[in-house]
Amino acid sequence: MSSATTFRAAERIGTLGTETAFAVSADAAAWKAQGNEVYPFHLGDMNIRTPLNIIERAHEAMVDGKTGYTPAAGIPELREALAASLSTERGVSYSPEQVSVQPGGKPVIGKFLMAVMEPGDEVLYPNPGYPIYESQVDYLGGVGRPYTYYVEGNRFRIDRESVQSALSRATRVLIFNAQHNPTGADADADDIEWLAALANERDLWVLSDDPYHDIRYDGAASQTMVGLAGIAERCVIGYTFSKKYAMTGWRLGAAVGPREVVDVITKLNTNDESCTNHFVQLAGVEALTGDQSGAQEIVHTLGERRNAVVSGLCAIDGVVVPDTAATFYLFVDVTGVYRRMGGGDQQQFRIDTMQKTGVSFCSRTHFGRDLPGEDRAWIRFAYSGIDVEVANRGLAELKEYWES
Fold first, then answer.
1. What is the pTM of this model?
2. Helix boundaries (H) for 64-105
3. How far is residue 104's CA from residue 101's CA, in Å, rounded to a whole number?
4. For residue 1, is it within any domain?
């Protein structure tokens, strides 16, 4: 009898990162399993029910037998609804042929990079930022060039100097997250116009990753790059139903952009998933074309949570909370608390805080590699998965511990 083959992961797997917030979730779940209370500020999941009209449409579709394969690019009804919705919202005329339906917003990132990036090409991406950008660039053989943010007037802004210093002749792609995870930054018109001019000048492909475009509480509608001169023909929008319609677990999104890129993404669909499931796509049609009161209520609920969490954090000595009008994240400067408690390893600080208070959050290190010169302690609070009453209890525990 031959011995079993020893498993050895392919070398390329070593370049693949992960969504590090899920690692924090594992810590929180293990702590809760021991009988402890956990206040979940760590993961951008939602404890808000998907609007009932969307659920009912999915159920109706399943009963009607809409459970088989669909075209790789998505059902015509959903592609048409997405094209119409985004044309209205973004001021760009999209056709259904420019839409490729995806099982969530996340697949757009890797497929877009596979479509436009050669190994060795350089990619500008935000850091701190969604860790999958860095992971996919590395895995696909690109060279990640991070740009960052700074605080001005108590709000986050794109650090233009970091963008300029990251540029080279090999730069091929710009990844832009206008309503930004983790900082909650809401890019203004000046920064967006500046980046658009740079993309045109340097002939860059642009991924406009827009999961939080509709999650805003103050001011006018969210700014977008795609409507500016020269951008639509070089830009793919990463769209998701997860946030606006509280459909995180449904896994429904889309890539929307130039036909030649979208066709490649659809070819990748055929090789990866075949298609996105039928009844979920029909639920997406209902989400876009049906009653919007549920989506409006979701934003209202998130806004109430934001106000409560900001108030609770600002009451803690040593905590600074920059302003944000969008997303459901707060990127909080806790340098005063961190130093008062002796500094040390930031992951240990996170775990100690959870075990003393039950409050679970992500640290700066969960959103990309540390950059040279960073000397502040930042953590991210997500309030999408915690009710106001529960959040207030957790923040009271946090205040008592961090001020003790």
1. 0.94
2. 76-90
3. 8
4. no
- Where is the domain boundary, 289, 311, 333? 289
pLDDT digits (tens, 9 = 90+) for 236-282: 999 999 999 999 999 999 999 999 999 999 999 999 999 999 999 99
Q: Say which residues have a Cβ less than 8 Å from residue 214's Cβ, sequence separation at least 6.
A: 222, 243, 244, 295, 299
What tokens were used for 362? 């992500």
What count of other Cβ atoms lies within 10 Å of the Cβ of residue 233?
Answer: 12
Number of domains comprising the chain: 2
Distance CA 305, CA 107 (A): 29
Instruction: Decide if pLDDT at 372 tops 90.
Output: no
Q: Are residues 156 and 183 in contact, defined by beta-carbon separation less than 8 angstroms? A: yes
Domain boundary among 266, 289, 312: 289
| 145 and 267 fall within a common domain | yes
Query: How far apart, in whole angstroms, are the C-alpha atoms of residue 404 and residue 399?
Result: 8
Tell me the C-alpha distance between 331 and 106, whole Å: 22
CB 102 within 8 A of CB 108: yes
Token pair belonging to 281: 């796509």
We report the CATH number of the domain holding residue 228 as: 3.40.640.10
- Containing structural domain, residue 359: 13-49+294-403
| CB-CB contact of 306 with 328 (8 Å) | yes
232 and 298 share one domain: no
Rg of the chain over all Cα atoms, to the nearest angstrom: 21
